[in-house]
C-alpha cells in the first residue's frame, strides 16, 4: 500500500511539473532571429519493438515521429533498427543504422542516414549501478531538393542511473531514471540538427514482461545550423511504448 501511494505521489508531482514548465518556457523555431531565441517545445512518440534471438543477442529499434508543437517548423520521421549483443561479462556491443526524414516548413526537407557502433556497460556495480553508453556515429544528411550532402563523424557518451520499486509481481515495476549525454563532432560538417548536450528525467511502467511504457522529459542544447557560433535550447516530451518477445532467459 505504501509503495502504491509513493508511485501515485511521484506521478502527480511529475505531471504538475510538466504542466507548469510547458506553460512558462518561451518558444522559438530554428528560423527565429538570434535576438528572439527562446526554447523549442517538441513532442517525440516512439514504438520500440524488441526481440531476443537468445539471452545474449537481441534486435530492437525505434519507429516514431518528432515535431515542434507551436511553430510547426518541422516534423521528423524516425526508423532505427539496432543489434545488441553480450561480448564479455556485462559489456554489450551495439550497432545499427538510423533513418531520419525531416519535413521542414521554412527550408528544404532533409534525409539523414546514420550508421552507429557503440558499447554499453554498468560500472561501478553498486546496488543502483551507473549505466554508461558510448558510441560513434557516421552522419550523411541530404538536401532532398538538390541532393547535396553534409557528412560528419560524431561521438556520444551517455551516463545514467535508475531506481526501481514496487516489484511485487514478476516483471511489474515502476522506475525513475536520470541521464546526461554529451555530443562531440570529430570531423566533417554537421546537418540541420547539431546537438551538444542533454539532461533527461524518465519514468517507466512495466505491466508485464512484454509490455513496457516510458515517459521522458529532456532539456537539450543545440547549435543553430545556420550560425554554429550560437546555441539554443529544446525541451521535449517523449512517449515510448516497448513490446518484447523472444527468449531472454
Overall strand count: 11
**Major β-sheet, in short?**
11 strands, mixed, barrel
Shape: globular
Going across the major beta sheet, what is the strand order?
A: 1-2-3-4-5-6-7-8-9-10-11
Strand content: over 45%
User: Residue ranges: pLDDT <50 for 5 or more in a row?
Assistant: 27-36
Helix content: under 10%
Order of helices and strands: HEEEEEEEEEEE
What's the topology here?
Layout: H1 2-24, E1 39-54, E2 57-68, E3 74-88, E4 91-104, E5 110-122, E6 130-143, E7 149-165, E8 173-188, E9 194-208, E10 211-224, E11 227-246
Parallel strand pairs: 1-11
Antiparallel strand pairs: 1-2, 2-3, 3-4, 4-5, 5-6, 6-7, 7-8, 8-9, 9-10, 10-11
Tell me what the structure shows.
The protein is 9% helix and 67% strand. By secondary structure, it is mainly beta. An eleven-stranded mixed barrel has the order 1-2-3-4-5-6-7-8-9-10-11. Strand 6 (130-143) and strand 7 form a beta hairpin. It is globular, with a radius of gyration of 19 Å.
Write a compact overview of the structure shown.
By secondary structure, this protein is mainly beta. The protein is built from one helix and eleven strands.
Amino acid at each position: 500500500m505504501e509503495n502504491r501511494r509513493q508511485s501515485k505521489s511521484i506521478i502527480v508531482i511529475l505531471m504538475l511539473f510538466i504542466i507548469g514548465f510547458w506553460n512558462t518556457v518561451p518558444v522559438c523555431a530554428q528560423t527565429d532571429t538570434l535576438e528572439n531565441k527562446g526554447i523549442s517545445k517538441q513532442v517525440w512518440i516512439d514504438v520500440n519493438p524488441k526481440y531476443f534471438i537468445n539471452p545474449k543477442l537481441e534486435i530492437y529499434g525505434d519507429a516514431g515521429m518528432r515535431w515542434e508543437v507551436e511553430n510547426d517548423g518541422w516534423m521528423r520521421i524516425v526508423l532505427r533498427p539496432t543489434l545488441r549483443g553480450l561480448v564479455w561479462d556485462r559489456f554489450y556491443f551495439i550497432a545499427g543504422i538510423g533513418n531520419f526524414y525531416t519535413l521542414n516548413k521554412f527550408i528544404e526537407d532533409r534525409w539523414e542516414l546514420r550508421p552507429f557502433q557503440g558499447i554499453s556497460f554498468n560500472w561501478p556495480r553498486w546496488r543502483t549501478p551507473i549505466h554508461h553508453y558510448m558510441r560513434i556515429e557516421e552522419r550523411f544528411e541530404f538536401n532532398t531538393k538538390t541532393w547535396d550532402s553534409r557528412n560528419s563523424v560524431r561521438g556520444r557518451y551517455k551516463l545514467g542511473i535508475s531506481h526501481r520499486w514496487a516489484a511485487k509481481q514478476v516483471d511489474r515495476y515502476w522506475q525513475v531514471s536520470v541521464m546526461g549525454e554529451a555530443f562531440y563532432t570529430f570531423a566533417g560538417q554537421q546537418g540541420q540538427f547539431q546537438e551538444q548536450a542533454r539532461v533527461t528525467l524518465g519514468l517507466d511502467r512495466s505491466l508485464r514482461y512484454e509490455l513496457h511504457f516510458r515517459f521522458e522529459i529532456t532539456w537539450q542544447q543545440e547549435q543553430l545550423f545556420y550560425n554554429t557560433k550560437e546555441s539554443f535550447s529544446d525541451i521535449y516530451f517523449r512517449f515510448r511504448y516497448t513490446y518484447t518477445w523472444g527468449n531472454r532467459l
